[in-house]
User: Which sequence fits this backbone?
């Protein structure tokens, strides 16, 4: 059976690990990589969309990152219980026309016994910003 460590029940340390792992995966902008954190029958509510299963996750994320360019995300642990984690997040992106946005939201995550996310409920709002207002730009090395 496929497992995604750390497994529930979560502690402060392992909940923080899950949040950081999710942030890193989403910032890769690799839909296949991101989908592996979810159960094969995962259920999502993302804004006004309802997504079921890994294949739909990959399709959704592929379309998302085709229109949300230079996407950069920051997640923060809000709370956790045995197999649930709540996060706050913000991400920045621009569209094809070069207009920048910051998207704010909250997610509720529920994990199965193998550490795979079986349910993700997301509420997200977008705010137009100027490029000089960005906070999440990738650091130059």
Assistant:
């Amino acid at each position: 059976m496929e497992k995604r460590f750390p497994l529930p029940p979560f502690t402060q340390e392992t909940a923080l690990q899950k949040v950081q792992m999710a942030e890193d995966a989403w910032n890769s902008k690799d839909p296949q990589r991101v989908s592996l954190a979810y159960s094969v029958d995962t259920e999502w509510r993302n804004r006004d969309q309802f997504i079921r299963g890994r294949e739909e996750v990959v399709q959704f994320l592929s379309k998302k990152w085709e229109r949300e360019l230079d996407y950069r995300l920051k997640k923060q642990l809000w709370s956790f219980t045995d197999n649930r984690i709540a996060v706050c997040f913000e991400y920045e992106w621009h569209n094809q026309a070069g207009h920048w946005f910051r998207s704010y939201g909250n997610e509720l995550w529920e994990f199965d016994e193998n550490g795979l996310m079986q349910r993700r409920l997301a509420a997200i709002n977008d705010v137009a910003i100027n490029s000089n207002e960005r906070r999440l730009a990738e650091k130059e090395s």
In short: Residues 12-130 form a domain with the Nuclear Transport Factor 2; Chain: A, fold (CATH 3.10.450.50). The CA atoms of residues 9 and 47 lie 28 Å apart. The two ends are 40 Å apart (CA to CA).
